[in-house]
């Protein structure tokens, strides 16, 4: 059966009201029962302590006459107005205000009762259960009493929970009575509201139907601020906006045309016979197509066997993976071609060309870099693993051998760290993440700092560090951090490869609008055949000695990138046996 809006709203109101009544009843009755039970429990504990005090004050022998104990229980119960039970330490009931004296011997042992067991263990206890003796739901509270400092027994008081059930029933009646009245009022109000809303929605439906049939002059004319009024106003705005749709579509068509003209990717549309329907300027430039190519067969203008096969295969496939083709000529290029049929009955084919020549060149550089980096990382990793395995195989017991292998691990770990840091620096430089500032840098403040970093190591090795700076301040335009990094690399290499007794000198001199910063040494020098490739990544003059000294093969490449990023140049001059000179030329800072 199909329900209208009015019926649905009415049913929802009924369901919500009944659910609210049920929830209120459950919450209130549960809360009341819990509160009253806890109140009775606390009151009974107080009474149990008082009864225990009375039992402790008496002079009756625990193992004596039960009649006296039963009389004591009856007397205390008359004052406490509760059921009182006096129980021996062994669980035997000595007296009970609700059990006749003659029936006491037949009462079962109470040592296992929860409240009695808890009292014997912790001094007092409570429990709630159906009494097997009197056949009612009872709340029990028990407390021990002592004779001569020793636990003599347990005094227990009990109270029926009839009042709790009676109060809960009264509250439930009140809740359901009030809820029934509220439900009746809610049903009356919901009926009135749903009737009004149903009429408004029927009017909106009629207006929407007329709009769909083409009558855009109709309006809902709905007043108010509720959701129905908002829907009516939205329908009115829709009718007004439909008149502007065609103009917007024409604007979108013109915009798409301008986008195609501005795209760097080539876009081509062919009809079912292979004639050119659309070609954008970017593709004209890629394929050297003239304006007369539109309407002609593509193969008349572009003779390329791989492209012809690709287009033929794309016509028979719903989706085809992009394919790369090479275009020969004065400027060879590599194009990534996406071809896919256009949905429709005209069986047109959309082909997108992306020039990936530079991307493939960069990928080749990346592969070479990864191969070199992997080769450089393999040696220290192998050394660390070999030393670790040797130590694990028993070398740890030999102090001298263990120290030697730990030293191997330390040196190769340091080399790995240097490799990773240098590769990160190169990655930042390549990706332009290493942001350089254009600021005035005083060489008189940078050079002493750099020399100070290496002075201790140089002195241990017997290498002399010296700076020769002009008396007048010399400043360059660049990044202070980058200049410090460049000098650190050059000085580090000089100290690392120079033998004891050598000298490393840092000089600076103004040359017109440039500043020439030189790091020279009197070390072993570099053979001439290595100089042209010295700034390449991972290039080493003596690979074995460089690795032994902790070189990564990336330092000079980083120097070159940083200097060029500051619009400078770097060069090297060297003679075997007479040392090397690295010169950095940077723009002089304005005075």
* Unreliable residue runs: 543-550
Roughly how much helix do the residues carry, as a percent range?
A: 40-55%
Shape descriptor reads flat
Going across the biggest sheet, name each strand in turn.
2-1-5-4-3
Give the class from helix and strand content and strand pairing. alpha+beta
The CATH topology of the largest domain turns out to be Heat Shock Protein 90
In CATH, the architecture of the largest domain is 2-Layer Sandwich
Q: State the domain count.
A: 4
CATH H-level name of the largest domain... which superfamily? Histidine kinase-like ATPase, C-terminal domain
Individual helix count? 15
Q: Calculate the terminal CA-CA distance, rounded to whole Å.
A: 92 Å
| Overall average residue pLDDT | 77
Number of strands: 17
Q: What is the CATH C level class of the largest domain, in words?
A: Alpha Beta
Query: What share of the residues does DSSP label as strand, in percent?
Result: 15-25%
Q: Rg from C-alpha positions?
A: 49 Å
């Amino acid at each position: 059966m199909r329900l209208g809006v009015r019926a649905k709203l009415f049913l929802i109101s009924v369901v919500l009201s009944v659910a609210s009544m049920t929830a209120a009843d459950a919450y209130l009755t549960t809360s009341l029962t819990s509160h009253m039970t806890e109140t009775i429990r606390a009151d009974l504990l107080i009474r149990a302590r008082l009864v225990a005090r009375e039992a402790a004050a008496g002079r009756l022998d625990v193992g004596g006459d039960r009649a006296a104990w039963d009389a004591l229980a009856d007397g205390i119960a008359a004052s406490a107005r509760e059921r009182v039970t006096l129980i021996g330490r062994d669980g035997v009931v000595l007296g009970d205000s609700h059990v006749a004296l003659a029936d006491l011997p037949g009462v079962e042992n109470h040592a296992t009762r929860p409240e009695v067991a808890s009292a014997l263990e912790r001094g007092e206890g409570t429990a709630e259960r159906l009494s097997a003796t009197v056949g009612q739901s009872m709340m029990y509270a028990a407390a021990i009493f002592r004779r001569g400092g020793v636990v003599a027994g347990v005094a227990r008081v009990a109270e029926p929970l009839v009042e709790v059930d009676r109060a809960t029933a009264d509250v439930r009646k009140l809740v359901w009575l009030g809820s029934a009245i509220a439900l009746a009022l809610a049903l009356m109000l919901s009926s009135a509201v749903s009737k009004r809303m149903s009429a408004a929605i029927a009017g909106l439906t009629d207006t929407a139907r007329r709009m769909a049939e083409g009558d855009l002059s109709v309006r809902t004319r709905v007043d108010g601020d509720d959701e129905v009024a908002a829907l009516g106003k939205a329908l009115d705005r829709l009718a007004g906006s439909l008149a502007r749709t065609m103009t917007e579509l024409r604007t979108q068509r013109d915009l798409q045309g301008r986008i195609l003209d501005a795209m760097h990717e080539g876009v081509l549309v062919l009809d079912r016979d292979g004639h050119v329907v659309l070609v954008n300027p970017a593709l004209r430039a890629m394929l050297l197509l003239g304006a007369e190519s539109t309407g002609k067969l593509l193969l008349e203008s572009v003779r390329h066997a791989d492209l012809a096969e690709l287009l033929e295969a794309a016509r028979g496939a719903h989706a085809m993976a992009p394919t790369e083709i090479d275009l020969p000529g004065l400027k060879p290029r590599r194009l990534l071609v996406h071809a896919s049929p256009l949905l429709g009955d005209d069986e047109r084919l959309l082909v997108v060309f992306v020039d990936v020549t530079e991307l493939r060149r960069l990928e080749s550089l990346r592969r070479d870099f990864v191969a070199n980096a992997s080769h450089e990382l393999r040696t220290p990793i192998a050394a660390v693993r070999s030393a670790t395995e040797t130590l694990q195989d028993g070398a740890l017991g030999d102090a001298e051998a263990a120290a030697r292998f730990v030293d191997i691990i330390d040196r190769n770990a340091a080399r790995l760290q240097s490799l990773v840091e240098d590769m990160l620096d190169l990655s930042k430089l390549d990706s332009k993440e290493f942001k350089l500032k254009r600021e005035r840098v005083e060489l008189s403040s940078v050079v002493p700092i750099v020399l100070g970093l290496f002075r201790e190591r140089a002195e241990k090795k017997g290498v002399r560090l010296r700076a020769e700076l002009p008396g007048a301040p010399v400043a360059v335009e660049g990044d202070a951090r980058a200049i410090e990094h460049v000098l650190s690399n050059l000085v580090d290499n000089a100290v690392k490869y120079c033998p004891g007794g050598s000298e490393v000198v840092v000089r600076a001199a103004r040359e017109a609008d440039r500043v020439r910063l030189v790091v020279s040494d009197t070390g072993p020098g570099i053979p001439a055949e290595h100089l042209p490739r010295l700034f390449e990544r991972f290039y080493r003059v003596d690979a074995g000695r460089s690795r032994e000294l902790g070189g990564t093969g990336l330092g000079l490449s980083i120097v070159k990138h940083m200097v060029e990023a500051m619009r400078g140049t770097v060069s090297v001059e060297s003679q075997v046996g007479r040392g090397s000179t690295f010169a950095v030329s940077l723009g002089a800072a304005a005075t």
